[in-house]
Amino acid sequence: MSRDAVLVGYVRTAFGRADPRRGVFRAMRSDDLAVAALHELLRRTGVAAHDVDGVLLGAVEMMGEQAHPGTTVPFLAGFPDHVVGLSLERACTTAMMSVHIATMQIQTGLGDVYVAGGLDSMTHFRIPTIKDGMDMESVIKEGGHMLAAMNPNPKLFERVNPIELNGGQGAERLAERLGITREAMDRWALESHRRALAARTRLRDEIVPVDGLDADGAVVSVRDDQGPRPDTTYEKIAALAPVYRPDGRITAGTSSGQADGAAVCLLMSSEAAARRGIAPLARVHTIAAGACAPTDLIYSAIPATRRALARAELTLDDMAVIEVNEAFACAPLALMHELDFHDASRVNPNGGACALGHPVGASGARLVGTAALELARRGERYALATICGGMGQGAATILERI
After folding, report:
1. Are 243 and 207 in contact (CB under 8 A)?
2. Could you give the 3-state DSSP secondary structure of residue 332?
3. I need a surface site. Which of 141, 270, 311, 381 has the fewest CB within 10 A?
4. Catalytic site residue 92?
């Protein structure tokens, strides 16, 4: 018999811009960010490290400081030896998949208490901007970015043009195919910044302050996301040049900002939460993954969402809160288009990755946690968190307020 898994805690660091000169976490290791988030998660929930059955953490590039985060981070955090660790990766869905696997562990009775989430320093592991006409072999050989470190198999290039596997190129194709206009994306990105700035106080509820550096190199306590821009206007966004194609629709303003950060969730069986007197934020109602062609990667949240809704026997209209990762502004617009949903006020009400940033290994946990907190604030029943991922891998999570 399947047991209920409940989300009882969620903490993240602020998200800093991935900028080697101005990023607030430019000198901070991503595993140290994860340790800070993990410590705060236990402090806020009152759960002791020795009561945790497992820690599941991911990073999209598991190398260097991000190698084996599921085992090294809890060790760095002082967890006892009996706590089982697991490192995992599934492109941008990584941290949400950590939540899913923790949920399945609880549902199947393998344990009662799990930490799940992810981390990324995109300052230290930069994703290169891939534009039309680039010689990808030269890009890979130049080094200094994550694509070069990955060293993709040349046989991959015999099956697909590697430029087409890039998120920005996929976003251009998706916008063109669905008729999503440049103006619609520009206005969505502007609203993302406006909502993120309006929600700054609320977002502090989920952020643990961590020391970072200001622009002059002085140590400061970072408690707010670095990405939202108070001076952003529609005119400024509309004036930006396309990034990926000379005649394209996607700009830096309608792309998620590369970012540094960590996010973690605490999940328990409902019985374990009741024994400890912990009131859950939400029950994990339904989890699902979905996939599409690797070249349609920005679309991949849609098959995942459809699968989750079908399993739950619910519709998007049943969701009081919908968190869609804004890998690009066309991602939430595509979801609304394909599922015939028109209430934009319920989608990313506290802003999205166009403003907050997208540390790719952490965003999936942020979406789940932010959705749960917003659902509790609204006193409604259901929320959806969904995210697209590289190679056409998407994930979706439906939460239910108890």
Report:
1. no
2. helix
3. 141
4. yes
Q: DSSP letters of 122-181?
A: TTTSPPPPP-TT--HHHHHHH-SSHHHHH---HHHHHHS-GGGGSHHHHHHHHHHHHT--
Is 292 an annotated catalytic residue?
no
Confidence at 145, pLDDT banded by 50, 70, 90? low
Cβ atoms 266, 102 nearer than 8 A: no
Catalytic residue among 100, 193, 285, 358: 358
Q: What's CA 62's distance to the chain center, in Å?
A: 16
Which tens digits make up the pLDDT trace of 333-378? 999 999 999 999 999 999 999 999 999 999 999 999 999 999 999 9
Catalytic residue among 292, 330, 354, 388: 388
Band (143; pLDDT cuts 50, 70, 90): low
Query: Which secondary structure element, helix H or strand E, spans residue 88, and what is its range?
Result: strand 84-88
124 catalytically annotated: no
> Which two three-digit tokens encode residue 227?
């990405």
